[in-house]
Amino acid sequence: IWGLESSFGQIMGDKGVIRSLASLAHEGRRPDFAKSQLLAALQILDHGDVTAEQLRGSWAGAMGQTQFIPTTYNTHAVDFDGDGRRDIWNSSADALASAAHYLQASGWKAGQPWGFEVSLPDGFDYALADSAIRKPLSEWRRLGLRGLPATMDEASASLLLPAGYRGPAFLVLDNFRAILRYNNSSSYGLAIGLLSERFDGAGWVRASWPQGEQPLSRSERVELQERLSNQGFDPGAADGIIGANTRNAIRSFQQQLGWPADGHPTQELLGRLRAEP
After folding, report:
1. How would DSSP label each residue in 149-174?
2. pLDDT tens-digit map of 110-151
3. Helix ranges, the chain (H)
4. What are phi and psi of 195, to 5 degrees?
5. How far does CA 197 lie from the centroid of its chain?
6. Which residues pair with 16 in a beta bridge?
């Protein structure tokens, strides 16, 4: 997290957090969220851990070496070096201990992995690659998945296909979900998990990623959602965010076409929707 969020404390953002959040609360895409963060940032100043001039961060108000938002700072930042201030900007000890505290509160289980890469059998039902579907490792093993550890049979895991059925597959456990509490993006969680293993010489992905696949732009994702809705599926709001509802709608359309129902948005899928009357 330290490395991905700020390049180990080198890039923390240089914008005034109060000004940024006030602007976003006035005319940002999520004004209520920005307002709550603005009030939390004012509480930070009131507490006296940092001055207004020192309260700097990203354009969206993320702060310090581990890029906490103000509400997370107020609930989980700690003074680990014992100087009387929770300084996630200048004290790596405070920043890292604060991130650890947040992961712990999010359900992190010490000594357990975040997940691992697996191989899928021929004829596998890709509709099972859904974060809402959780099965014990023993059940995934019964379904023919290979690469599982010999122990932890009762541990609950979901199947993640970050590039659809053509790419690598991962079983992700409770610690992966703890990472998602930090940033609710499967790509973020996967990056954190793999980078954490690279420090020990592991973290290499064995399977090949699809080559030449052009990801959908935001406007294309919105169009995808609108066209799915027009076809009678329920992708949720057409906001360009590929969440659980959109993936379920994609799976339903893929099943209707007889395609592998991996819920993955592609240019090919959008083209097929465009061809629908």
Report:
1. -SS-TT-EEEEE-TTGGGS-EEEE-H
2. 999 999 999 999 999 999 999 999 999 999 999 999 999 988
3. 2-6, 17-27, 31-47, 70-76, 92-105, 137-142, 174-182, 186-198, 218-230, 244-257, 267-274
4. -65, -40
5. 17
6. 56
